[in-house]
Amino acid sequence: RIHLMAGRVPLGADRAAVAGEMETTFIENLRYAADLLAQEDMIGLVEPINSRITDPRYFLNTPHQAAAILEKVGRPNLKLQLDIFHCQIMDGNLSRNLETYFPLIGHIQIAQVPGRHEPDSPGELNFPYIFELLESLGYTGYVGCEYAPKGDTLEGLGWLRSYWESRGLQHGGTTK
């Protein structure tokens, strides 16, 4: 799997004025990339990145926009990389968005909102609920941890041990 980036609205340009041309170019580029990736049996991922905090100029900024573009591209080896952090900032309504876009999802990334730290840090999101929802939907892919840990790596993954234990699992995800 590889993240295919959408590009940024040019400095000084009005987003609405260049949106059509940027979308056309992105769709052409995605088709080209998808065809190359298909030769290697690879999946391409498009990730909406919030334009409110992280990158005001990033072209692809909502799962709705990404889904529409993926439909226009029409390649089965292109999927949605849904970053829960970005989705919450741009739209909220995470449960419904996960359910709606689940067939398109090829990868999930997580971080707490608003601080972009560990899932168990103070914030807006209830990650045990989100993980249970993903399980109930049948998600079997990886969950990427794209956050800034407050401490070192081991501390930054401490939430995972607690989560596994709350689910009756031992370290590494094996059942007791």
Automatic annotation (TrEMBL):
GO terms for molecular function: hydroxypyruvate isomerase activity. Residues 2-162 form the Xylose isomerase-like TIM barrel domain. Keywords: Isomerase, Pyruvate. Transmembrane segments: none annotated. It holds the Pfam family AP_endonuc_2. One of its GO terms (biological process) is glyoxylate metabolic process. SUPFAM superfamilies: Xylose isomerase-like (SSF51658). This is Putative hydroxypyruvate isomerase.
